């Protein structure tokens, strides 16, 4: 049977990562690459990276997917979220490198930095937390998850958010606030 | 460890999406590493970001990108193992894992009963991070901020008008705050602080010594 070129369900992406981890499966990796690399690049372009930076982050992200495939745990996170965190950390590193090369007056080169973002990934790696998180996100209204996404993930200015959601500019701030509080409440509720 | 004070949600969101300044990211990371509640919030933001990634408009990769990636994979990882600076560990054997991997500068005294150690961050921007150690019962000078101040308590406690802050607690101060923290009597208080702008000491004595403090 042929492998579907574009698996839809998360489980299938997870299977492909499992095959990369267990057998170094090049075909499985190619499917992941073809789906995710252009999306990481598109995401980074929207986040303000140059075309070269976005291409480099996308390539490095997929290299990391190959190398860390064995660490992916489908019980605790989704494939897209996992790949997002890899790309995010690489972008942080790239900002850091740029800052470092712009500061030649520094006498001694600091030891390679800790990755603060990593620790969060480690501590929240419990499966029960993951199901709580999933349930909370599912209970957010479509508008609320949209507001959070536009404001924090796509970092759109309030005027654009007002346009996209067709709401008055003056109410954007309170909508964001409400959506964040609701997410916090939903996460707290499920004890 | 009971944690009562948490970062505001927008700070946690920016932490999750990787858009905080390095010094601030470090302080939030230390809190999140010890706080399951905020850990879940960060995880929720990461899942939402994953959904946004899945929906992102694909941008075509360079023609040879896949071959280039496979070639780099077969070259093997270039990164070396990070050496841990031994001085820091000797001085604070129980620092959180995230901090143990940072290079921490020399301790210097900044006021009676108060000393600080800068944390050297390679990508630091406007915000600076440092460890602040205060003797039990120290009454900090009344001060206001020109920027923001993020604090995570590592040991001991302090109190101000916002309440009592013990290990793991997170305090967010901005230029609206005008407070005078008092360190708890139970022992020295060690905090991790990220600060933008300057600390303004109020009162005659504060104005007199603040040029020397330069926190």
Q: What can you see in these coordinates?
A:
- The complex is a heterodimer of chains A (191) and B (215).
- Chain A is an all-alpha fold.
- In chain A, helix 1 packs across helix 2 and helix 3 packs across helix 4.
- The radius of gyration of chain A is 19 Å and the shape is globular.
- Chain B is α+β, with helices and mostly antiparallel strands and 215 residues long.
- In chain B, the strands form three sheets. In chain B, strands 1, 2, 3, 4, 6, 9 and 12 form a seven-stranded antiparallel β-sheet that branches. A three-stranded antiparallel β-sheet of chain B has the order 10-5-13. In chain B, strands 8-7-11 form a three-stranded antiparallel β-sheet, with no helix packed on it.
- The longest helix of chain B has 20 residues.
- In chain B, helix 1 packs across helix 3.
- The C terminus of chain B is likely disordered.
- Chain B has one domain: Jelly Rolls, CATH 2.60.120.10.
- Chains A and B meet through helix 2, helix 3, helix 4, helix 5 and helix 6 of A and helix 1, helix 2, helix 3, helix 4 and helix 6 of B.
